[in-house]
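ok new one. same drill as before - structure tokens go in, u give me an amino acid for every spot. 507 of them this time. try not to just spam alanines like last time pls lmao
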């Protein structure tokens, strides 16, 4: 009997993942490949866009090899990826430069300021939903025009990881509405279309991608793509969307009142509702599905800090987690700011920097690791409180991502925020969500799949009331620590930028 599966592939910040999932939501095969982003200068985060397609080919062939000899048919393909990114390609679909990544790349601050002055912040928020921040795609296009005019002169089309995969698989030039709404200020959030005057101003010469919803079919696998990937020619490929939204789909956290917490290299939060909420310090977007709206936020560094500590100390994660648990709530009197690569929401400060306060010679690496986990939890609390102040109705919290595999980080976030978190059976994230969207788009299915059937809740994490008062006090210190050190860290950030020459190499 033929087992009909869908394939889901997600291009992430530190790795790409792929899964084959059967009609009941069971993972038949999985694969992953790690990669590094490029940081040629302070505040720059880039990646060679050709790697995204190469990794899809690798993952597709590996997944198919793992079911070789079995009667497995891939009925549809789902794609997902980090974003919003800016990959500009020429008329031959060759990238004109490395892709500029999402809010962790802070190079376009001058363009943000210029466009805000020119267009007016209130008008930008009215039309696009959000102010211009490091997350916005529009200023990054303007940066390429300003700083690399020869590259921009060759540019003809705009892609993100998911849309690039869809294009390479099918030839279609599409972008989903959710991703488009983060190309601020190029997208009109209420009319759900490109804002023509600002597209002509900011992105002249670039062809507009056709807008689709994440689960809509972009096209069919071409003969050339079939030869490269091992997929059958004519297989439907969905349009896809940004990984955080695909992760929300993977755990069913895309209904009104839901909040998704994505534990990864960065931390991402997506609150879903029925109306557009506008606040200067968060991102207002359309949702993955028609009629939904999101208020979103993100920490620029979370899992990246724990990897940094592991590399710095030479200890493995099980040892660090054991030592952090032994350190106990409050990390024996340490408070950390997790702004190691600037910060996104809610402070919107690309020049923020990491700070560790309270260090003594008695502190050890377990205390540092505990402080890092608590710092990300304080960042989550700061975002949640800001969302609620803006009117977000948050009634259900679902955790997803690689960081959910261990118990300690989840417990710390619940303890700091006072939130109960639901953890589903499958937490692999966006690749699984992409496979679900592909299954939901498959016209050959007799019935539409339900994510609650595919991926039910496995456990809940409940805050410990015994540490609530301690974390309330430390959260107050956390907020004060940023206010008290911002002038110093901004000066240091400027000094760090001065240490790179025009080639990006240290002087």
């Amino acid at each position: 009997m033929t087992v009909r599966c869908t394939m889901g592939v997600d291009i992430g910040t530190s790795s790409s993942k792929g899964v084959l999932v059967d009609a009941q939501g069971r993972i038949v095969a999985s694969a992953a490949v790690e990669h590094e982003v490029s940081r040629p200068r302070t505040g720059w985060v880039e990646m060679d866009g050709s790697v995204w397609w190469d990794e899809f080919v690798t993952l597709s062939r590996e997944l198919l090899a793992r079911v070789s000899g079995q009667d497995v048919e891939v009925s549809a393909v789902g794609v997902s990826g980090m974003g919003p990114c800016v990959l500009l390609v020429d008329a031959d679909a060759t990238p004109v430069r490395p892709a500029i990544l999402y809010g962790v790349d802070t190079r376009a601050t001058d363009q943000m300021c210029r466009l805000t002055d020119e267009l007016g912040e209130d008008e930008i928020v009215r039309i696009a939903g959000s102010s211009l921040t490091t997350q916005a795609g529009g200023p990054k296009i303007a940066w390429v025009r300003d700083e690399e005019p020869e590259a921009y002169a060759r540019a003809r089309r705009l892609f993100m990881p998911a849309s690039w995969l869809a294009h390479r698989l099918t030839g279609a030039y599409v972008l989903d509405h959710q991703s488009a709404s983060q190309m601020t200020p190029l997208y009109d959030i209420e009319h759900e279309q490109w804002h023509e005057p600002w597209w002509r101003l900011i992105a002249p010469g670039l062809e507009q991608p056709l807008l689709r919803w994440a689960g809509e079919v972009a096209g069919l696998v071409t003969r050339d793509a079939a030869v490269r990937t091992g997929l059958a020619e004519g297989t439907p490929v969905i349009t896809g969307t940004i990984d955080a939204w695909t992760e929300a789909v993977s755990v069913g956290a895309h209904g009104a009142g839901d909040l998704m917490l994505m534990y990864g290299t960065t931390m991402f939060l997506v609150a879903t509702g029925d109306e557009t909420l506008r606040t200067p310090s968060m991102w207002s977007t359309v949702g993955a599905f028609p009629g939904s709206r999101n208020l979103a936020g993100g920490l620029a560094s979370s899992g990246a800090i724990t990897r940094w500590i592991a590399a710095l100390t030479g200890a493995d994660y099980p040892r660090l987690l054991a030592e952090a648990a032994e350190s106990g709530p409050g990390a024996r009197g340490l408070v950390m700011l997790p702004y190691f690569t600037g910060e996104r929401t809610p402070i919107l400060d690309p020049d923020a920097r990491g700070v560790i306060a309270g260090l003594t010679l008695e502190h050890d690496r377990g205390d540092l690791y505990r402080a890092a986990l608590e710092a990300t939890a304080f960042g989550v609390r700061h975002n949640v409180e800001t969302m609620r102040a803006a009117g977000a109705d948050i009634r259900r919290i679902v955790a997803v991502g690689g960081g959910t595999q261990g118990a300690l980080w989840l417990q710390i976030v619940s303890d700091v925020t006072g939130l109960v978190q639901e953890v589903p059976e499958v937490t692999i994230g966006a690749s699984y969500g992409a496979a679900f969207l592909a299954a939901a788009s498959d016209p050959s299915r007799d019935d539409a799949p339900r994510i609650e059937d595919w991926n039910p809740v496995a456990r809940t994490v409940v805050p410990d009331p015994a540490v609530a008062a301690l974390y309330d006090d430390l959260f107050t210190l956390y907020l004060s620590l940023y206010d008290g050190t911002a002038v110093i860290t901004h000066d240091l950030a400027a000094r760090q930028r001065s240490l790179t020459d025009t080639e990006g190499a240290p002087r």
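Residues 468-498 form the longest helix (31 residues). and btw Residues 179 and 241 are 6 Å apart (CA to CA).
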